[in-house]
Amino acid sequence: MIISPLSLMNSSNIQDLPKNEQLKVVSAQFVSLLLSEVFNEMEKGIYKSNLVPDQFGESWYRQWLMDIYAQDAAGQNFGQLVKLVETQISKNPYKELPDRTENFSTK
To answer: For residues 20 and 55, is the Cβ–Cβ distance under 8 A?
Structure first.
């Protein structure tokens, strides 16, 4: 299964999976997104000269490439982190989500 930010938006079929499989998929997606952000921040730290200007779509391609690297890393090298996230999600202390809208009520 390919995990990407796009698959997060199109994950309506996740409801059809058993609960433990849902946790695995969501945990892997979370770790993949986390790693993608880390890779993007690392890339921002690399000095880039203006000698050769960026081509149209190059930033999109780099973002896509970082997402693919993050998917591969989450699937191959970060299995322990995925399992840790899965364990933490399954220990949900809330029976239902807390209502946090009360802090934003207008007076």
So the answer is: no
